[in-house]
UniProtKB/TrEMBL annotation:
Keywords tagged on the record: Membrane, Transmembrane, Transmembrane helix
Protein name from the UniProt record: Sporulation integral membrane protein YlbJ
Residue ranges of the TM segments: 7-25, 45-69, 81-101, 121-142, 149-168, 210-235, 321-341, 372-389
Keyword Membrane: yes
Amino acid sequence: MNRSKSFTYLLAAGSVTTAFLMIRYPDVAIHGSVQGLTIWWDKVFPALFPFFVLAELMIAFGVVSFAGVLMEPIMRPIFRLPGIGGFVFMMGLVSGFPAGARITAQLYKENRLSKSEAERLASFTNFSNPLFLFSVTAVSFFHQASLGIVFALAHYIGNIGVGLMMRFNGPKITFEKKGSRRHLISGALMSMHQERIAHDQPFGKKLGDAVIASVNTLLAIGGFIALFSMLYQLLLQIGIINLLNHLFSSFLKLCGFSASLGPAAIPGLFELTIGDHAVAETSAPLIERVVLVSGLLGFCGFSIQAQAMSILSQAGLSPKLFFVGRFFQMIFSSIAAYFLFHLFKIESGLTSISTFAAGPALEHFSQQTLTYGPWITFTSLIIFILLMLRRIRKVNKLMK
């Protein structure tokens, strides 16, 4: 009871302090919010929206049931999760933050996952978008495309490590191998067909639902990005960030890292993109920068953590395992990056994009996304508004 009261007082004090700082430094608050919304408008929305809509349609068309039956022999013995966890894993890997949490929450609402399974699944399906790992982090920030494979493998190994750790959490269920591979595929196809028939709706209705659900989630994500961007700027204004810089620099020095990495890494605890860029621009040894950025990618920043927490909490799921997963993914990814750096013999003098065949293509795709991203966001929001107006009119007609 005392702990609950203390938490209540802490939340109240934090909200009042934030409101006071916004009044005391209005220009800083506005600048931070605009900076966060700009990132959301230009990059986050256009990058996530297509994947969110696609995930909704795949669920509606029964692809989840297909993947569930097909991946049951893999997910059960390795992660002690049903096969549909494999679908969440792959969609989270391709889509990026916070798709894993969103799809997990939706499947839990549809009673396809138990509470324990959903919480464990959400803890290790939190991936950074491959485009961000290869094109933005490796090519744009480090100017070394060969590092993309290091960042990606370290990131994925870290998440798999969390999944293997989480398999020991929750009730134990005995897995029984069923049927041959041939029967498994036919059973998966039949399950997909039955799922689609059971929830048969016109394609236009399903597409409209997918767009509305995706935009609603992305609007909430935009709010979190703006909020944490503003909080970082306010904390920087009153000197809290400088104190954190000093403490983190001392910690890194004890670990054998360059102290100059401390001030660069602190922004990454709030907003991942800013922190990764700042670390990449320091003069610290390349291996130290790679290990630290891999850790930040695993931690993924308070902004993304808050987004996932909101999604999970709204579905009635506890975010505790998700937070624990981020801590361990940060450690696992950093360790993996250290060994992968030496395994691939990455040297600081290797800066040519040609060292990774997909480098030029990824850089071009990244530039195209930045060019057309705002238009994708604008068009999607207009479609969302039109769909909502149409549905409001239908509801009003039915009420009359």
